Structures are given as C-alpha cells and as structure tokens.
Amino acid sequence: MASCTLSLHVLSSGSCGNAALVDYQGHLLAIDCGIxxxxxxxxxxxxxxxxxxxxxxxxxxxxxxxxxxxxxxxRGLAKQGCHxxxxxxxxxxxxxxxxxxxxxxxxxxxxxxxxxxxxxxxQVMPFHTSHxxxxxxxxxxxxxxxxxxxxxxxxxxxxTDTGIVPDAxxxxxxxxxxxxxxxxxxxxxxxxxxYPASLKRRIRSDxxxxxxxxxxxxxxxxxxxxxxxxxxxHISEHNNTFGMPVRVLESMxxxxxxxxxxxxxxxxxxxxxx
Length: 274
Ligand SMILES: [Zn+2]
Ligand SMILES: [Zn+2]
What we know:
single chain, alpha/beta, Metallo-beta-lactamase, Chain A, seven-stranded mixed sheet, 10 helices, binds zinc ion
C-alpha cells in the first residue's frame, strides 16, 4: 500500500471521552479533548507523538465527552510554551462554559459549516452533523500528497455523534482514504439493554448516534478506490462490542468486493491509522 500523507491517531473514543489527532507530516490538528490531560499526554507518548506539535484544536460539539479535558490540556500545553489555536462555532462556544474558559488561555477562532479553514498545512472543511447538541460538526481534511503513487490530495473524513447522515455530510466524506465514522450501537443490544426508554429513544433518534448497520450503510455509499482505512468510532460499551462494528463493516466490504481495512477506535488504548 502506498504511503500517503495523512494519519489519524485516535487517543480515545466512546461515551467516556473522545480525543483524536490528524497528522500531516508531523503537524498535528487535534479534534476534541474529552479525556484528562494526564491520559492525553500518556497516550501521545505511547504513540511517540509530541503534543507540542498540535497547531490547532477543532471542537465538534459542546457535549462533555468531547470537551471536558480541553481547559486543563490547553493550560498544560501553554506551560510548555505551546499555544494551539482553538476553532469552534459561535453557537458551540456560547453553549459551553468550558469553551468560554478557553478564551482566557488561548486564541479562539470561529468556525462554520461549509467554510474551509487552512490549518497546519491542511484544508479543513467542517460540515454539520445531526445531534442533540447546540450545534455539531464533522470534518473533511485534505492535504497535498508528497508521493506520486498517491492521489493528488490525501483525504480524511471524520464524523461521530450524528443520528443520521445529512446530505452535505455524505458529500463531504466522499473520496476519503481514511474514514473515521461513528458505529455507536447494535440496535438489538440497545433495544434489549438496560438503558431507560427515553435514553434509548434519544440514541435512536435523528439527533442521536449511528448504529452499526447505519454506519455500514453509509460506508457502502462511500466505497470507491480511494478508501483504504475505516475506523469505527464512538462505540458504546453498553450497547455494542468492539468486534461487532468491525464484523458488520467487513461483511459489507466482502459483499462489495472491497478490500479496505477496518478497525475499532477504543476508549482506553490509542490507535494510529495511516
Ligand atoms: Zn459523544
Ligand atoms: Zn454528543
């Protein structure tokens, strides 16, 4: 397989905390920080990543599993002389005291769906997801490829925390080589599990989370020659297993004769995909 430009590091994924990094030739973009600073730094060290190479932090939405570690992490990085800028929508900032607190520590810039940002040598296109937060986003991230054997631009798609796939999100994910996509729950495990009915309804709603089958359906609509790596994200520890999203995706790929590699993003063990 050709060695292309972008990598995705998933430091933590799931309802207990989400944090990911996109790596372009050693320049890092962070997506969310829903874990504590100590774990964030330990997992970076496990992957031989220097957190001072983080040039910007993107925030998907205001839920605490995506934001609770941001302030302490930003303060910790500032002590080491590192000052990544934070990109967040005005609506998410207004809804989140944690994000407002960040304005005292770092530069906070506005972000909006459909407006491309140029960050750390990458082009970042935020798009809306469908979730019960003040506002919520996924990202299409592109960077020029160094190698002739790769496509002209390397593309990484990232989408979690969405009850459905809006048309604009589907369009933005097209052509991804690396795709990080939510595969939150198995519908039967959720239906028969112990969650209260109101929470089950919330998860299954258009503003909740994608099931394994919904994830596989969306990926099946995105299959093309560019797609090499799929990472199943935000996997529920109560209503799913870490094997099931991988099996569902692999059987969809086999059915379509596609050879993309699939793995699960984990809550406690960091993984890298390139
Ligand atoms: Zn979440
Ligand atoms: Zn959420």
